[in-house]
Design brief:
CATH superfamily: Isochorismatase-like
Strand order of the largest sheet: 7-4-3-8-9-10
Number of strands: 10
Bound molecules: dicarbonimidic diamide
Helix content: 25-40%
Oligomer: single chain
């Protein structure tokens, strides 16, 4: 756990300070745990990244997902990707840099970052149940051009447990969007990962700095501990 003090039952040992959540108003938000980011041959690797850096987040997310399913917490998965005709992919995104394959190009797991292709799907270890919400997003943030706000309002959600990849890109963007919309975000430190370990560290620091300017940060063990007493 991040904090050495003995946890108070039901309170998450988080930074910058402990936080108690109203569990029925809390959802688990899992960002972009897709083959395109996690596996060789996908979007992440075409950008020159070492995808093995992201594997460390899978087990902690799996533990949270199990706990959420066991306790009936709303689970929301997101997937970054684009329509086959690329009409929702801005040229500035498609054309940038010098990747080995661009968004929409055919790759070993189908067309890169295109909805419906194998690479766009969520990794088997964290595969959504039919009853869970899956949000397809064209951008980094999960609120931009999606139905996420409607889903959260429908279920009366005020708090988000946020995990996924990558810490400094889609996780951070989503947390910032959520913060502006009034949601309390607890970001799971070991349930996020980056291709760049230093960006992971700084991405978490940016969230919890200045009294938690964008939210709270806690590890999965601290959240599981708090859920155990609070949701049963
Ligand atoms: C990126 C993401 N890194 N899911 N997307 O392009 O963080």
């Amino acid at each position: 756990m991040l904090n050495s003090a003995k946890p108070t039952p039901g309170v998450i040992s988080a930074e910058p300070e402990p936080i108690k959540l109203d569990w029925p108003a809390t959802a688990l938000l899992i960002i972009d745990m897709q083959r395109d980011f996690m596996e060789p041959g996908g979007f992440g690797e075409t950008l020159g990244n070492d995808v093995s850096q992201l594997a460390r987040a899978v087990k902690p997310i799996g533990a949270l997902l199990k706990a959420a399913r066991d306790t009936g917490m709303l689970v929301i998965h997101t997937r970054e990707g684009h329509l086959p005709d690329l009409s929702d992919a801005p040229p500035a995104k498609v054309e940038r840099g010098a990747p080995s394959l661009r968004i929409g190009d055919p790759g070993p797991m189908g067309r890169i970052l295109i909805r419906g292709e194998a690479g766009h799907d969520i990794i088997p270890e964290l595969y959504p149940l039919d009853s869970e919400v899956v949000i397809d997003k064209p951008g980094k943030g999960a609120f931009y051009a999606t139905e996420l706000t409607d889903v959260l309002e429908k279920y009366g959600i005020e708090n988000l447990l946020v995990c996924g990849v990558t810490t400094e890109v889609c996780v951070n963007t989503t947390v910032r969007e959520a913060n502006d919309r009034g949601y309390r975000c607890v970001v799971i430190s070991d349930g996020c990962a980056s291709y760049f370990p230093e960006f992971h560290e700084m991405g978490l620091k940016m969230i919890k700095a200045q009294g938690g300017i964008f939210g709270w940060v806690a590890d999965s063990a601290a959240v599981l501990e708090a859920m155990k007493v609070s949701t049963t």
